[in-house]
């Protein structure tokens, strides 16, 4: 099917998106600097130069604001996937859209990731963090369904979940290793998924598995 043109945002919509992103980034920055328990909604609003009432128009809590960075990161993924060329296989479209998104961000910074993971490990953020990842998976599944012309909802959901798992495994592997770059690992995992894990089912294991005791920890 022909690629769908990503919807054009109005000036008002762009400003709202920018305001939401600014509040989320301020929430993360303050939480990393002070500890989340020492940050108030008023502090976040002041950091951006808006009122607490404006903050409440976008988020119901400081925890939601911090975790929203997980969701916001995938806005570009949705737009990139819908804009992929007509006739391109679905898995290739998903892979290229994902690689494009993460290439734009560049290789993660280890010091920042370490601090962010420690922050996300706090009990008060766990619920919102899981909600954020569920939202990402839902949006990805809906976008895959659009790209595939309204394909089976369960299969689109399964594909989205598999893609999110590949991202998580690639990220944890990068975080736990000293010299393995993130993007090539992610691309390899997506290729394996697209072809039914032939390396694994063929009985060969060229690379050691990541430390599975860390796979349930938050990724950023």
Task: Provide a descriptive summary of the structure in words.
- This protein is mainly α.
- It folds into two domains: 64 residues, Tetracycline Repressor, domain 2 (Orthogonal Bundle), CATH 1.10.357.10; 148 residues, Orthogonal Bundle (Tetracycline Repressor, domain 2).
- It is 69% helix and 0% strand.
- The protein is globular and about 55 Å long.
- The mean pLDDT is 86.
Quick structural summary:
The chain is mostly helical and 220 residues long. Helix content is 69%, strand content 0%.
Name the features:
single chain, 220 residues, mainly alpha, Tetracycline Repressor, domain 2, 11 helices
Distance between the termini: 33 Å
Number of strands: 0
> How would you describe the shape?
globular
- Can you identify the CATH superfamily of the largest domain? Tetracycline Repressor, domain 2
Tell me the major beta sheet: none
- Radius of gyration over C-alpha positions, nearest whole angstrom: 19 Å
Oligomer: single chain
Helix content: 55-70%
- How many helical elements? 11
The domain count comes to: 2
Question: Which fold name corresponds to the CATH topology of the largest domain?
Answer: Tetracycline Repressor, domain 2
Protein topology:
Layout: H1 11-34, H2 41-48, H3 52-58, H4 62-72, H5 75-82, H6 90-105, H7 110-120, H8 123-147, H9 153-176, H10 182-194, H11 198-201
Helix pairs in contact: 1-2, 1-4, 4-8, 5-6, 5-8, 6-10, 8-9, 9-10
